[in-house]
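anyone seen this seq b4? input:
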Amino acid sequence: MLTERATALDATDPLAHVRARFLLPEGVVYLDGNSLGALPAAVPAVVEEAVHRQWGTDLIRSWNGNGWWEAPIRTGDTLGRLIGAASGQTVVGDSTSVQLFNTLLAAARMRPGRRLLLTDPDHFPTDQYIADSVGRLLGLDVRRVPAREAAAVLAAEAGNVAVAAYAPVDYRTGELYDMAALTAAAHAAGALMHWDLCHAAGALPVELDFIEADFAVGCGYKYLSGGPGAPAFAYVAQRHQSDFDHPLTGWHGHAEPFAMAGTYTPGAHISRARISTPPLLSLLALEAALTAFDGVDMTAVREKNLSLTGFFQECADELLDGLGFTMATPRDPARRGSQVALRHPEAYPLVAALTARGVIGDMRAPDLLRFGFNALYVTHADVLHAVRALLAVVTDGEHHSPEFRQRPTVT
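predicted toks r here
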């Protein structure tokens, strides 16, 4: 029955043709695109051309002749269409951590006199570290409040909260939160809303302009498939750009960068959110990777991701029952992002053994097996194969082998 279901679902998949836009290794089911997206087919030729002709032949002339200078904003506008941002509000360059620090501190500066910064105790560690750093630098109290409790705290602390910094998707469990409702709650309290979209951009419709988000950041290497270390993006709502006073005032954000002035004058509009020379090869790779979304409706992406994650849960219920797994991801589609996490005390060796079978997921300490579903290239047949492989690992006890219990640096 599950085989027939997978076949039927894949036969009616409106995004089935997009899979050909990726170079997927033979014999591998890749369910770790929520950590590093698969390689888009458009990327290798673009990077080769950038290395051999643009860098190798045109050299420094490429800043003008090949559009290197405009790439951060050009790519930002392309990416902005995937996160509901009109042009002129998104810029690409630097790392997620740098973009996060720059925008979060700038947001807090825009609410002087307010002493509270809210963030999620379940946030990705870097987000928490940087929130603490911003708190120390500005003398703010950083309070960790779970996303589901944030609206109530914002109402109770109205007039005291400067910024609420959250992610719409829990990176561990895949639980999805209501961006519009939390943004509205922040604004009702007079606070600014800062979103980390690393696990949302490219995976589900994000309507930053529509919900009147203030700031957002996100990486380029997960669902956007920009490659390892792909530069991150920053979104600064147009209404805030003239007041965007950020700490990392690099020369690329200057109003006249090539005047080489000794004092900083911010550039116009989103250009002031630029910092320094971006990693051009990675930036051009990301720009090429985004062509995989050409003609793709993010609503269709969301519908397929819900179908994939729901089918995974269905397969796990039927095939893994009684084997020590519990579902960590909400079953309600409205509360589920684009990944599914299972709890099991042997999470790491199970994932390692599964990888040896050609099914790549990942784990998060202490006990989560985490599977990410990119609608552009994952099929329902992949889902069923993955759960059957996990069943075989457990049934055969493969995860008890010493080779799967030795943890490398990256888990």
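The radius of gyration is 22 Å. Residues 298-319 form the longest helix (22 residues). kinda curious what u guys think
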